[in-house]
Amino acid sequence: MLLRRTTTAAVIFFRLTATISHHFSTATKPFSKIPWKHRSKAIQESKQALTEYLHTTRSLPFLYAENIARNSPNSLWKIVTKIPFSPSTFTNSFERFLRYHPINELDFFLESIGLNCHEIENPLPLFPHNTYFLSDWKQFKEVCALAGMGFPWSKLGLLFKDETFISEMDAGELKLKINEIKVVYGFNSVVVIGVCLAFPRVLYSNMDGLLNDLKILFVDYDLASLVEGNVDAMLEVCRKIRLFYDLGCEMGKIGEFMGRSKSVFIEYSEEDLVKKIEYFRKLNVEKEQVGLFLLSKPETFGFDLDDRVISVKELLYDFGLSKKELIYLEQKYPHVFGRNRIANLPHIMRSMDLGDWFFYRMKNGDHFLLKTYTIRSKNGGSDKYYSDNLLTLQAKKTHIYVFEKLNFLHGIGFGENKYAVKALAESRSSGTQLQQRFDFLLSCGIEYSKLCTMVRLLAKILNQQESMLEKKIEYLCKDMGLSLQYLNVSPQYLCHSLEKRIKPRYKLHKWLEEKGYCDKAYSLSTIIASSEKTFIARISRIHPAAAKKWQELIE
């Protein structure tokens, strides 16, 4: 396996460059048709003209008019495209257009608060098509009230994604609710705003459990003092907190856990937290347990669980399996053993039905082994057959495509061994397609470990499109009346043609049963899997009329 490493400096430079490029392109892309040397001035002039129009002509408070104009570049560009551009006349032309062509103010407003109506399940009752002016939209006063209480204008869209909040809005009630939260729970304005943006339900529903948790975290454990005194920083912290409730952790029950682990919400980015959560979620244990485990073992967030190489056998031994148990596992799941990356460890465990066992060991203190583990033996589980084939693959012109498929195999639990090489040779699709088909078969109900074994025995089952796999599974379960367990014994079923082989042979099987010609029991899998010559010879021995019936079925 190729383990590519990038220096920290290079990563930081790449991310910084990408961020600057993104912000620049986002701000200027809508105006790309204006000559570059005039673009900055045209953008500024159009924003000023729109602000003046909304404030003077439409009587909006200047601060709100300015926020709308400054934060709605796409809506603004739709107007600019209707005006022939000339550096000397652009401003006058833009102002003249606004005088004689009233704009849809609601579109500008929604964009300015960061809201896309497609993010709301049923936007029409909230934002009717016939609402053209903000003065006709009944919730606009409440929005202005929120802005007056310190809510960032461009973040207000986070509240609007909660449809119930919009329908329940009332400026007076909102102000009372926010003041009540401040007094009862001891939050300052920055904390309240961050909490409301991350959890809009606190503004209209009983969320005492959540607020009690947050009081323990922000006040009792004084997390608020560690957060920069601005709403953006507080919102970022609250978004991280929400990750654990989204995992199913019960509101009102995890305040102490979070308080004892408060450094997590400061030291790590939301991306870091999501990455670790997803890592342990791959073990397929209850998601609530993952949240509680990470909060009780916050040091886990600092573990390197990406590129380190492990020996599966050594690691299992370190986690407490006996030599006898390892021999049994190696015989039952030979495709798992050898070297692999620690990033693939959750799927390695699932591929041996050890996900729950592994998670239990970590909950009980063995999680530190993930940090301290290193390969000890001389060869560390390396496989010469695999290494030799790897050198051959690296020399191929298509090595990038091939290694994508190989990474898929290692990602689902295959070690660096001959079984991975065999499966790679049988795979005729891209790594992305293989992953999609593997995930589809999992969604059908096939157990993870059983599916990995099927891939070991017959990797070409993943060379088919999901639609065809779905039809074959549906025929197996509905028409043939068999369970998915049948595939554990006969995975080759998925490789046979449904119309030319499976259906006609099964129909013949039913015909033989209905006629009472079957004196001896025979395996349906044998009937389907046999070659054409062997199949005809077998059915002819069952009954002379069977071969004739077969010809009728395939004609």
UniProtKB/TrEMBL annotation:
The keyword Transmembrane applies. GO terms for biological process: DNA-templated transcription termination. It comes from the Eukaryota. Belongs to the mTERF family. Keywords: Membrane, Transcription, Transcription regulation, Transcription termination, Transit peptide, Transmembrane, Transmembrane helix. The keyword Zinc does not apply. It comes from Penstemon smallii. InterPro entries: MTERF (IPR003690), MTERF_sf (IPR038538). Pfam families: mTERF. The chain crosses the membrane at residues 183-204. This is Uncharacterized protein. Gene3D superfamilies: Transcription termination factor 3, mitochondrial (1.25.70.10).
